[in-house]
Write a structure and sequence with these properties.
By secondary structure, the protein is mainly alpha-helical. It has one domain (2-247). Helices cover 74% and strands 0% of the residues. It is built from 12 helices and no strands. It has helices at 2-26, 29-32, 34-37, 40-43, 48-69, 73-77, 87-107, 116-144, 150-163, 172-195, 201-216, 227-247. The two termini are 22 Å apart.
Length: 257
């Protein structure tokens, strides 16, 4: 019995290391791949370079984890939670989305220079890829394949998630604030993922919803935002967390892998 158990322990350690390496890669992948994604055919399409970098981040995580765990890439992808039920998360989304849009219509102004492609990537596409990488894949694997405690599995990817947003800051103060806000946001998204029994849709809807509202109503140039943006964000978080206790199914942290 010691042999199989020892092998399983080493597999778990190797898999966690693979997740960590892949997450560290996401913080520098944009710089590493810049010469490839800044060629003219790619630059001609708005945000195509960012999309290709994000796709590379996801593929790197999937294949490193599959290799370390000795499992198929498809099985690794299945941990992401995108095949989970969507109806109840959609109902949950309406509980916080309707009041925040109403408040923004009353007190905020729409951004004058936001294009459809800005919303398509910064509001929707980017958050989708980030949630798949940092929550669905990383968090799902760390908990269900590596046996990490939930609190540590939520915090560890959030550290890299915050670090990946360093480029938004213009000075050390703004960098620290952006990293702190996005890191805490990552912990919240991770908690939602686990609370909803490894269902990625709530975290994905919340992330994409906040980003889109931020863009459309010009609530800030980066994650720090102004007073209205932060008041809106706190209100959304309060409703989203409270509604999760009400609508989310009973937690089952030992869900089958």
């Amino acid at each position: 019995m010691d042999g199989p158990l020892q092998l399983a322990r080493w597999r778990a350690i190797a898999t966690a290391a693979a997740v960590s390496v892949a997450l560290a890669y996401t913080t520098v992948s944009g710089d590493l791949l810049a010469p490839l994604v800044r060629v003219e055919p790619v630059r001609a399409v708005p945000y195509l370079g960012s999309a290709l970098v994000s796709l590379g981040d996801a593929l790197a995580l999937v294949f490193l984890v599959a290799l370390a765990a000795g499992r198929s890439p498809l099985l690794a992808i299945s941990q992401a939670g995108v095949h989970a039920p969507i109806l109840r998360p959609a109902q949950w989304t309406l509980l916080w989305l309707i009041p925040v849009v109403a408040a923004c219509l009353a007190f905020a102004r729409t951004a004058p220079n936001v294009h459809a492609y800005d919303i398509a990537w910064l509001g929707i596409g980017g958050p989708i890829t980030e949630e798949i990488v940092y929550r669905g894949l990383a968090l799902g694997v760390l908990i269900r394949w590596c046996g990490w405690p939930i609190w540590l599995a939520c915090i560890w990817p959030a550290v890299f998630f915050g670090a990946a947003h360093i480029g938004q800051g213009e000075d050390w103060g703004s960098v620290a604030g952006i990293v702190a806000i996005t890191g805490l946001g990552g912990i919240l998204f991770g908690w939602l993922f686990v609370r909803w029994r490894f269902n990625l849709w709530p975290a994905l809807f919340l992330h994409a919803g906040l980003n889109t509202i931020w863009l459309v109503f010009d609530l800030g140039e980066n994650a720090l935002g102004g007073w209205l943006g932060n008041a809106m964000r706190l209100g959304v978080i309060a409703i989203a967390v409270g509604a999760s206790f009400w609508l989310a199914p009973a937690r089952d942290h030992k869900a089958a892998s």
